[in-house]
Amino acid sequence: MTSPERFAALSEGLAAGVRARDGLIGLVLLGSASDEASDRRDEWSDHDFFAITSEGRGREIRPDLSWLPDQERVVLIAREGDIGFAALYDDGHVFEFAFSDAAELSGALAGDATVVVDDDAGTTATLIAESRARAAAADRFDPANDVRLVLVKLLIGTGRVRRGEVLNGGQFIRQWAPQLLVRAIRGRFDDASMTRRDTIDPVRRFELDHPECGRRIAEVVAQPAEDAARDLFALTREILEPGWADFPTAAADAVAARLGW
């Protein structure tokens, strides 16, 4: 468990490391690591952040992570793509971060965020303002399209499972279809969503807005793949179809007929 004191000390250590490292000009704490979302912080909260380099110096500086705090307690460092990193400490605390210049993060999305370190030009603050604007613009649902995709993913996934591709089919059934169903539910019943919901990942804190739907979806996808697909299909119809003219009833009937449901 990461205590509040340990969490705060790591945040302070990050800020000190960024300020001391030549070529680093910015630090942004994201999500529950930020000041504005500190009320959501609990024993499972990680440090998510952006570490911003001077323009054009990302590739040069990225191999050096000596600025991370408590180096002697780091037991694992892993790469996620070109600019993403994960660091694990011996007490189980995790850092997940992007380490790059502002240009390399030009497509980033941000919700809750605290700019801790910045240069005189406000490079980091500008990056976060633009990232938040992109996140707000992307925070739109098209439930009619999302539910159509639920049906497609369940059909393809079940076909793959029946073909013997259980792992790949399971991705369609347990990952992509539920994500789309969550989006469809959020869009169909948008009044139920809290103002502090995650604008980047609709699945985050879904259970707080839709506790019964969240519980039932979780129970369904915990089953063997085809059972999960069949029950998720039934749940999709139960939750979304009644009283909604945009529900693709004919398509749902076609999927049921094709799969013998």
How would you sum up this structure, described in words?
The chain is of the alpha+beta class and 261 residues long. It is 47% helix and 15% strand. The protein has nine helices and six strands, in the order αββαββββααααααα. It has a six-stranded mixed β-sheet, with helices on both faces. The radius of gyration is 22 Å and the shape is elongated. The N and C termini lie far apart (46 Å).
* CATH fold-type name of the largest domain: Beta Polymerase, domain 2
Share of helical residues: 40-55%
Radius of gyration: 22 Å
Poorly predicted runs: none
End-to-end C-alpha gap? 46 Å
Shape: elongated
Q: Give the integer mean of the pLDDT values.
A: 89
Structural class: alpha+beta
What's the architecture of the largest domain, going by CATH?
Answer: 2-Layer Sandwich
Oligomer: single chain
The CATH superfamily of the largest domain is known as Beta Polymerase, domain 2
Number of domains: 2
Give the DSSP E fraction (strand runs of 2 or more residues).
15-25%
**What is the count of β-strands?**
6
Let me know the largest β-sheet.
6 strands, mixed
Tell me the number of helical segments per DSSP (H or I, 4 or more residues long).
9
N-to-C series of helices and strands: HEEHEEEEHHHHHHH
At the first level of CATH, the class of the largest domain is Alpha Beta
